[in-house]
Amino acid sequence: MTAPAGLDAPRLSGAARPGLCTDCGVSRMADAKACGRACQFIRPDYPRLETAVHGRPANPSHTDEFFFGALLSMHRARLVPASPGAQWTGITTALAARLLETGAVDAVLTVMPDASDRWKPVPVIVTDPAGLARCRGMRMGYAPTLALLEPARAAGHRRIAMIGIPCQVYALRALEAELGLERLYVIGTPCSDNTTTENFHIFLNLLDPKPETVSYLEFRADFRVELRYDDGRADRTIPFLQLPISQLPPDFFPMTCKTCVDYTNRLADITVGYMGGDGDQWIIVRNQRGAELLSLAASRLSLRPLTDRGRRKGAVTGFLRNTERAAGGLPLRRMPGWLRPVVSFLQPRLGPRGLEFARARVEMKAVETVLHLRRAFPARIKNMVPDHVWRLVKPYGLEPGADEGSGGRREGKD
To answer: 227 near 238, Cβ under 8 Å?
Structure first.
C-alpha cells in the first residue's frame, strides 16, 4: 500500500514461524534465528531484562509490583482535549507525537489501518508527528512491527520509539543491545487477547447486522462492550454476559494469547491501557524514560488518583473453573438465560473496579496460561512460566508440579 508523507509502510518479507508465534516481526528479519533468543514463548527471563531496562526486577513484596511489574508511579488519566479518532483519549499517540516534535526520536514504529480494512494492522514507520493521527484506534490481528527495525536503520534512524504489545516488547528488549541504537523509547499497551483480523470479522458479524458500519469497539472496565457506528446510528453497549461467545470457534483466540505471561507490558518504559482506569486511561510509569515521556504531554494530561473497589476472588475463581471445563475452548459461563440480565446489571455495581479489576484480569491471564500449557504443551511449562506467574496463581491452588520447575530460576533454588 502507499502511505501518506511521513508514513512509510515497507513491504515485509518472510513469515511467522510455526508453533507458538505472534509474528512480532523477528522471524522476518535477516537473522530469523534471532527468534531463539528473543521469543517470550521459549524461555522468558523477566528478572534479567527488567534489570537491564528498569535497573532492577519487580519487587514481589510491593503490592502493585506483584501484579503489574516494576514501576515508579501509576495514574488515572485522560488527554484534554481528547484526540479525534482515538480509542480512548489518545494518550499513546500523543506521547509518540511529542517525541517526534521535540526531536527526541527520528522515527516511531507502530501500526496504522490497512487501506481496505480498518481493523487490519499495517506496520508503519512514522517520521512526521501529524502522521500519528492515522495510527489512532484499535486494530485486531498480527502485525510484524519489529521487522521495521531493519528498514528504519537503513533509513538512518538511530533514535527510535516503538508502540507495541507485550510479546513484541519482550523480543525488542531481548535484542536491544544488538541494535546499535542511540536511544530507544518503548510505549507499551496491555494486550487484551488478540486474534486474527479474519476471526475478528466473524465476531463483528455476530454482534451487529451491519458490521461494516462498526467504527469503534472497546471492552470496557464496566463489563460492557461499546460499539460506535459511522452510519449515524447511536452508540450502544452490550454486557459481557450477553456476548455471543458460544458461537465463536474454539480457537478464536490463538494459543499464544491463551498462554501469555505478560499482560501489563512489564518491559515498556511506560504502559498506557485502560484496565485500572475505571473509565479513564491507566498509566504505569516504569522508569526514568517513562517519566520523561509523561512529562512531555503534561500540559494536556488530566491526572487523578486511581480507584480500587470490590473483590476479585470470586470472579477469578469462577474463571478458573470455567476454563477447566472448557478443555481448551473458550471459557463459557454456565448460567440460565433469565439470570444473565440480572448479573449484567449487578456486575458493574458490585464487581471489581479500578485496580481491583486490573488485578483480576492479570490473575485470570496467569490462570489461563498455566491451565492451557498443562493441557496443550506440558513440556514447555518448566521454561515458559516465569516466577511472577506462579506467584499470581498460587492463591487459587495452582502450583508447579515436580516436572514444572523453571530451570533453576525459581525462588529458593540455586
So the answer is: yes
The number of C-alpha atoms within 13 Å of 51 and in the hemisphere containing its C-beta is 3
370: helix, coil or strand? helix
3-state secondary structure of 228: strand
pLDDT digits (tens, 9 = 90+) for 60-114: 999 999 999 999 999 999 999 999 999 999 999 999 999 999 999 999 999 999 9
Cβ burial 5-30 (10 Å sphere, 16+ → b, else e): ebbbbbebeeebbeebbbbbbbbbbe
d(CA 319, CA 298): 38
> Looking at residue 219, what DSSP letter applies?
E
Task: Determine the residue type at 387.
Answer: D
pTM of the model: 0.91
Tens of pLDDT, residues 168-222: 999 999 999 999 999 999 999 998 678 999 999 999 999 999 999 999 999 887 8
CA distance 92 to 296: 12
Q: How many other CB atoms sit within 10 Å of the CB of residue 244?
A: 12
Burial of 305 (0-12, 13-18, 19+ CB in 10 A): exposed
User: 58: which 3 cell numbers?
Assistant: 519487580
Contacts of 99 (CB under 8 A, 6+ apart): 105, 108, 161, 185, 293, 296
CA–CA dist 392, 388 (Å, integer): 6
Q: Give the rounded distance of the alpha carbon of 304 from its chain centre.
A: 23
Is-contact 185 161, C-beta < 8 A?
A: yes
